[in-house]
Amino acid sequence: MEGFSLFPPPSFWENWLHFWRFEDMNVLWVLMGSVLLGMSASVIGGFAFLRKRALIGDALAHAALPGVMMAFLLFQTRDPLIIFIGALCSSFLGFFLIDWLPKNTKIKADAALAITLSFFFAIGLMLLSFIQGMDVNNKSGLDKILFGQAAAMTEGDIKLLGYVTIFILITVVLFFQKFRLIAFNQAYARTLGIAVNRYELLLALLIVMSVVVGLQLVGVVLMAAILLTPIAAARYWSNQLAHILIIASLLGALSALISTQISYLAPAMPTGPWMVVSLSVLFILSLLFAPQKGLIKQHLNYKRLRQKVAEENILRTLYKLHERHQFSRHHFTQADIQSFRSMPSSCLQSTLKKLNRQGLVQSSSQGTTLTQAGLKKATQLTRRHRLWENYLNEQAQLSPEQVHQHAERIEHILTDAQEVQLQQELRNSQQDPHGNQIPGATLSKEGGGKN
Amino acid sequence: MINDIWILATASLVAAACALVGVFLILRRQALMGDAISHSVLLGIVLAYLITDSRALPIMLGGAVIIGLLTAWLSDTLNRVGKLQNDASIGIVFTLFFAIGVILVSLYAGQIDLDQECVLYGEIAFIPFDTLHIGGGKNLDDGFEIGPRAFWAIAVVFIIVLISIIVAFNRLQTVAFHPKLALSLGINIVFWHYFLMTLVSMTTVASFDAVGAILVVALLVIPASSAYLIAKSLKAMLWSAVAYSQASVAIGYTLAYQLDSSISASIAVSAGILLCLTVALLEIKKQRQRATATAQ
Cα separations (Å) of A263 from A148, A272, A404? Predict the structure, then answer.
């Protein structure tokens, strides 16, 4: 457990307080830089995600490596701008290769991505090992861009990071409408006279820039996650692109905050992996707990719908039993119900209990009977079922044998307005295709019982 | 000298095993899955080592296969349940696994003889120094040295891959080329998918010592893609993928010797260069055909 002694509790808090008091100006700069990066990468990653190229960031980040090494080899300097331009060039080369290979050869898009990624990365590593064998100055920090190290960033790095990320954010805000249109409907954008190719190129440039500028902080290997995970998480929170992008950038910023802190508290830790882990935690939380599209909410919705369907099915079965006995008999046993609709006894009993509680049925020793309210509801459901059967039979030319299954599903979700509309379409027909009476409307008239 | 032979033998076995498995990855359009598994295998290795405190081959293979299959299953589940695009769900899973792996490596740096660099390059040059001894405490010769550990690991995996391909050739062929036909014939596609993922995990973990987590992607995807461009049948593709991989080992080793650069990176680069040459030749051929077609 040697690793955990890196930050024992008391000094951990001290360090933490120290961090937040910003006594060290450098910390503040690194923090701001990483937050800006988190925001811009998440926003630009959103567009890559929408263009169904979620992993493009992965390939581009790997593709930047030979550029970095080449720039260092040629100019023998670690000047951030030169390294940035070198990385930009080779990343762009990778971008075109990914585009070109599937269009001109048999190689598929996913293979092209993997080929570019690994080939460029191998070149980068080859150059790196070559440089490390050479006798040159300040080569020591070069391998830090593999996993990223916030603490190793110089002031120049951070300045460049700030300029580039702000440029990216402003560009996205300025061209948001056009980017959105192109992302969702390229053909339509073309017909509107938008120069799609030019904007695609601009978008590619922005993606490449945000990948390249983040290398120092996050590292080559995990850059993919910074572009991809925030947008994937944000998607569970909203359906509006603008909202999704804002949420994604907030998530990106939050994870940058967390990982920079960890990197500061335990300097041996690489920043990139922590950023990815905190992003993944945010993603899992979103996946589970998002208010509309989260898995838990969806599961609850599904359960509620199932419950509703089970209840309504029993109501309708009871109605049919009533109808079978010309509305003269009122009490039916569970066996009667099961003879019409096969369902497990346990499920039937629990559903009956729930119906009982809602006052829709009444159970006694003689059996189960519909209350007034229950009869009303059951009549309405039966009416919708039969109206729909009729509608399918008349308008969709389905045979009477085919219509029951459809109606069985739709009866639970038809609305009042749709019911009236159906009735008008069918000119108040009285019988369904099986020859059963369609019970009268319960919305206006009272009670559906005809006994 | 003997060390060079061990290095070359290990490299060519790694390249051959990767090429064979890679053929099926390319045909099944699962190249990204290969990328993902090769990354997450790191977590499997580190966890297996931390839990059992042993570097025995079966344990490493087991850990890697479990994590590899978990990666495949989780991305599949995320794709279905979370309604995410296929590549996005793969990306989320493997980056998380890889990140945890790297964090564990840097947390327990003193205890594992893995470091961040080795994760990326592998250390094929040091392979001959980590040798395997047979029958240390048993009845055989006391500690008889039989060669590098990494060599025997990849040899075992290579034989497993080879036997699987020979035995299940027809099945793999149907599943690779015509999954719908396979389904209608009653072949369990899901099983064969995970079978392939198992082979990928085993190959990557056995290659890990030699070439690291990321360069193995190059060996999986690039020779198989070159073969995909020229081959007309599955058998031809398998043979030519192996041929490409061996050529890249030969060229790469020479290159590394000349430039004094990393052997594994040079091998991957030469595989890429061979692919570029193949593409260029095919382009020239295409253009010449077009020229003759217009001339006629």
Answer: 10, 9, 64
